[in-house]
Design brief:
The complex is a heterodimer of chains A (223) and B (424). In chain A, helix 3 (63-73) crosses helix 7 and helix 6 (114-124) crosses helix 7 (135-148). Chain A contains ten helices and five strands; from the N terminus they run H-E-H-E-H-H-H-H-H-E-H-E-H-E-H. In chain A, strands 2-3 form a two-stranded antiparallel ribbon. Chain A is mainly α. The longest helix of chain A is centred in the first third of the chain and has 19 residues, at 4-22. Chain B is an alpha+beta fold. Chain B folds into two domains: 93-291, Sulfite Oxidase, Chain A, domain 2; 296-421, Immunoglobulin-like, CATH 2.60.40. Helix content of chain B is 15%, strand content 29%. Chain B has nine helices and 23 strands. The longest helix of chain B is centred in the N-terminal third of the chain and has 13 residues, at 7-19. The radius of gyration of chain B is 24 Å and the shape is globular. Classes of the chains: A mainly alpha (223), B alpha+beta (424). At the A-B interface, helix 1, strand 1, helix 2, helix 6 and strand 4 of A face helix 1, strand 3, strand 4, helix 7 and strand 12 of B. Strand 4 (174-176) of chain A pairs parallel with strand 14 (290-292) of chain B.
Chain lengths: 223, 424
């Protein structure tokens, strides 16, 4: 298929786009569509929090208050100590296991930023009753999650003032995608076509572990 | 596509047919096959050829034939604690061509399917813009610059169960967290320009309107390059499970970023490091450190037929069929092997070849009933060659969950039964 029609389209979009961009300093948009968002509307939806604390609401909560709330509203799924009930996710434990065969990736073991806990619980927990907690409650339960992950003591109070003083153990455990450098060997090699290896051995089979639902299997019969 | 046959490839092709066994003999036997008794499917008048069928509009929204009932999305119950935070898989082994039917596109939800009244849906753009705006769907559909685009969407966790070895028996389960759909919408760039991104704007936060309020940080450059805000898939409104009434389209990048039920885009000067880009969707490597922002999906392919749920049923002529895709550039070539990677032959890539999109490849072969080890290997226009699982593990270890694009092997037994295996 020719790529030229698509290229032409992209160019026209670029032209249109930059025309609109030129106007961007003015108060009125170039095209009369949509309307200005009201401050109350932005406040209702813009609840995200960043690692530097930008986006935090006012309020505070202690480990003690958080424990009570966690037992009432979270422990049924996440376990009393955050260990995870049944197949529900663990929210604590696993420290120092990132190179193990079965690494724990809960908050204290893996997460880089406290803001992520606050933001995530605030927007989506408890599961099935999202955005029902007050700001103080989110501070408190975040403080409790930090406590059961051995990051703060049992007298800790989380607030905008104490927020950026807390660092998670794995804060330095992440780096930007470097596949194009470290996996460079996967590019521009001439793939072998004939006699590429002498023998082929089967190392393992899915059947041994057999996890496939019964009715999804194809029976073998050949003509 | 690159179909130029060099001498070595022609030689490779002969070897390939040879490896499939006494192909010519089987082929002759098959074409000479004769039926002893007349076929009642021909000699008897069938019910459907005598009486009248259902009239028009009996099925106002058409559904597949009742004989296709088995072609459905499936889940693996023990994978997750709740169906609201779970995944169902595309039945790749039952499909053909490059477009995934809307009702068969895999699902991944974090708080179930939001059931949104489009009249009450809003898209807000706020943050570092000159004008913080609210749009209705009607507003979006009146914007100039509407486009249609065909793109694959692959979950970064597709094939994530297979890092340590063969696990799930079926390409629906090993590779079914991917689909390829024709979208209609407007370039995100149109909207951002409409609001006037401030000069310090570098990142976007896309947010969903579901009970997970899913968020992902997206660099502004990507948004300006080729992202869409889409309301239609395959010619009709998005399906609820695919984000009705509005979703983000992020071509070539991991599926989690294609925020469904899109309700807000914030412009900022830094990434947000939210849960889905820290706790999840980061790639833990063998040394205990993790790559983040691994957005691009590398070149990958899989043979869908044969595969464990679609075993071989006939000796003689057969058609191997599969899919290949790359988030970096167009797929340039796909090679297939029937002997576990000892010998390869370049497959035939069918039209259309779009990017980033599925391409469909075929390789005709004769089967004499001997054991086969079927593989495919995709090469994209950046020169990237799909690695073996061993090669990939050398770079990544076995704990990364995400971005497993290693070469898949299916073992076909003499009775046609096909199994997921890992080979040396």
């Amino acid at each position: 298929m020719s790529r030229f029609p698509r290229l032409a389209l992209i160019i026209s979009v670029l032209v249109l786009g930059s025309a609109a961009h030129g106007d961007s300093a003015s108060a009125e948009p170039a095209i009369a569509l949509g309307r200005a968002a009201l401050p109350e509307e932005i406040a209702a939806w813009d609840i995200d929090v960043r690692p530097d604390g930008v986006g935090l609401p006012s309020g505070k909560g202690s480990v003690k208050q958080g424990e009570e709330l966690f037992l009432q509203q979270c422990a049924a799924c996440h376990g009393e100590f955050g260990e995870g009930a049944g197949r529900w996710p663990a929210v604590a434990g696993g420290r120092g296991s990132l190179t193990d065969d079965n690494p724990g990736k809960a908050i204290g073991a893996y997460w880089p930023y406290v803001s992520t806990i606050f933001d995530y619980v605030r927007r989506s927990m408890p599961f099935g009753n999202a955005q029902s907690l007050t700001s103080d409650e989110v501070y408190a339960v975040t403080a409790f999650l930090l406590f059961i992950n051995d990051v703060v003591g049992d007298d800790f109070v989380l607030s905008p003032e104490t927020f950026t003083s807390v660092r998670l153990p794995n804060a330095n455990g992440f780096y930007e995608d470097d596949r194009e450098i470290t996996e460079r060997a996967l590019w521009n090699r001439e793939p072998c076509m004939i006699n590429c290896k002498s023998e082929v051995m089967i190392l393992n089979r899915a059947r041994v572990l057999d996890v496939t639902p019964e009715d999804a299997k194809g029976a073998g019969s050949v003509d | 596509m690159d179909n130029g046959t060099t001498r070595s490839q022609r030689f490779g092709r002969r070897r390939f047919l040879g490896a499939a066994g006494a192909g010519t003999a089987a082929l002759l036997a098959a074409s000479a096959a004769r039926s002893a008794t007349p076929d009642p499917a021909i000699t008897e008048v069938q019910d459907w050829a005598r009486g009248l069928g259902d009239g028009v509009a009996t099925r106002p929204y058409g559904m597949p034939s009742e004989f296709e009932k088995h072609v459905v999305r499936r889940d693996v119950e023990w994978l997750t604690a709740s169906r609201q935070s779970s995944v169902s898989f595309t039945p790749l082994h039952s499909l053909d061509g490059v477009i995934t039917p809307s009702g068969l596109c895999f699902e991944r939800h974090h708080a179930g399917i939001a059931d949104i009244d489009p009249a009450k849906h809003r898209l807000m753009i706020n943050g570092l813009v000159d004008r913080q705006m609210v749009y209705t769907l009607d507003d979006l559909k009146r914007f100039p610059g509407r486009v249609g685009r065909i793109h694959f969407l692959e979950c970064a966790a597709n094939t994530g169960m297979e890092w340590r070895g063969a696990q799930l028996n079926g390409c629906q389960f090993t590779h079914g967290m991917v689909h390829n759909v024709a979208y209609t919408g407007i370039p995100l760039r149109m909207l951002l320009d409409h609001c006037g991104v401030r000069t310090n704007g570098r990142w976007l936060l896309a947010e969903g309107g579901d009970a997970a309020a899913m968020t992902r940080s997206l660099p502004l450059d990507k948004a300006m390059k080729d992202c869409l805000v889409a309301w239609a898939m395959n010619g009709e409104a998005l399906r609820p499970e695919q984000g009705y009434p509005l979703r983000l389209v992020v071509p070539g990048w991991e599926g989690n970023m294609w925020v469904k039920w899109l309700r807000r885009i914030e412009v900022g000067d830094q990434p947000w490091h939210h849960r889905e880009e820290t706790s999840k969707y980061t790639d833990l490597l063998a040394d205990g450190r993790a790559r983040r922002f691994t957005w691009i999906m590398d070149a990958k392919s899989v043979v869908a037929n044969p595969s464990p749920q679609a075993p071989l049923r006939h000796r003689g002529p057969n058609v191997l069929s599969g899919l290949a895709w790359s988030g970096r550039d167009a797929i340039r070539r796909v090679d297939v092997s029937l002997d576990g990677g000892r010998n390869w032959r370049t497959a035939r890539i069918d039209e259309p070849v779009l990017s980033p999109s599925f391409v469909r490849f075929y390789a005709e072969f004769d089967w004499n009933g001997s054991e086969l080890l079927v593989q495919s290997r995709a090469i994209d226009a950046t020169g990237y060659v799909q690695p073996t699982k061993h090669e990939l593990r050398r770079f990544r270890g076995t704990n990364s969950i995400y971005h497993n694009n290693g070469i898949q092997t299916w073992l076909v037994r003499p009775n046609g039964e096909t199994e997921n295996v890992e080979i040396s």
